TrEMBL record:
Basic residues bias: start-end ranges: 215-227, 235-246
Lineage: Bacteria, Bacillati, Actinomycetota, Actinomycetes, Micrococcales
GO MF annotation, one: oxidoreductase activity
Alphabetical list of SUPFAM superfamilies matching this protein: FMN-dependent nitroreductase-like
Region (Disordered): 162-246
Pfam families: Nitroreductase (PF00881)
Alphabetized Gene3D superfamilies for the sequence: NADH Oxidase (3.40.109.10)
Protein name: Nitroreductase
Database matches in InterPro entries: NAD(P)H_nitroreductase, Nitroreductase, Nitroreductase-like
Domain Nitroreductase span(s) in chain numbering: 2-150
Composition bias type Basic and acidic residues, residue spans: 198-214
Length: 246
């Protein structure tokens, strides 16, 4: 999985529908609250890609020209990823969209493992009326883009295998809960990276906990001094009364 790459230029060979159905076994275990299966896929091949190009042109307000829109022709097989949520009291729509995205990525990984190149493409017009109509989307459904699928050029695959592209530092994606005092005093920048203490995170920021402790101590001392002064005033008053009686 760590070696997976998005392949922008794929070859003309593609998996057939039978092979795709076999690969879908890897998709069904996707995390899916209440097992709603809120996703579906459409395969787009041959002249259907021209129809998609025409729908994209219509969505962008472009007049149909002599040449077809080249974008859907960048692969022989496109797989449309559709989020198809179901109303449920315990599973909000955003969570079902996340499940659909998870299913699409699992399919990407399964295709990669089977030796196919994949590029997940989207676009601002993906959910324009003309494009939605072409895909037969229901009102509650969302088109999440297309997986462009094809074979990988052997020379390019070899370059991938010998690539020395440095991996991303995983520690930048892993954090812990913010410290309690940070939650109470700071509404932003609250995440503490794994392996880093709160003191390291705050750097030269003032120690709020120590400040509060000092304030509390000062208030207590002031209160004590006030009570002492009050008590002394009472004693002085009593002494004064005794002198008057004499």
């Amino acid at each position: 999985m760590a070696a997976r790459r998005s392949i922008s230029k794929v070859g003309p060979q593609t998996p057939n529908d039978e092979e795709l159905l076999a690969l879908l076994d890897a998709v069904t275990p996707v995390a899916d609250h209440k097992a709603l299966r809120p996703w579906r896929l459409l395969t787009i091949r041959g002249d259907d890609r021209l129809r998609l190009g025409a729908a994209l042109d219509a969505a962008a307000g472009r007049e149909p020209g002599d040449k077809p829109n080249p974008k859907p022709l960048r692969a022989e097989l496109l797989i449309a990823v559709i989020a198809s949520p179901t109303e449920h009291p315990k599973v909000p729509e955003w969570e079902q969209h996340a499940t659909a995205a998870g299913a699409a990525h699992l399919l990407e990984l399964a295709l990669w493992q089977a030796g196919w190149g994949v590029m997940w493409r989207t676009g601002l017009d993906a959910n324009a009326p003309a494009v939605r109509a072409l895909h037969g989307l229901r009102e509650n459904e969302l088109l999440m883009g297309w997986l462009y699928v094809g074979d990988i050029d052997p020379a390019f695959r070899k370059r991938l295998e010998t690539s020395r592209r440095p991996p991303k530092d995983p520690s930048q994606f892993l954090s812990t809960l913010p410290a309690p005092e940070a939650v109470a005093t700071e509404s932003t920048d609250a995440l503490v990276p794994a392996g880093e203490s709160t003191e390291q995170r705050t750097g030269d920021k003032p120690d709020r906990k120590a400040e509060k402790k000092a304030e509390k101590k000062a208030k207590k001392a002031a209160k004590k001094a006030k009570e002492k002064a009050k008590e002394q005033a009472k004693k002085d008053k009593k002494k004064s009364k005794k002198k008057d009686r004499r």
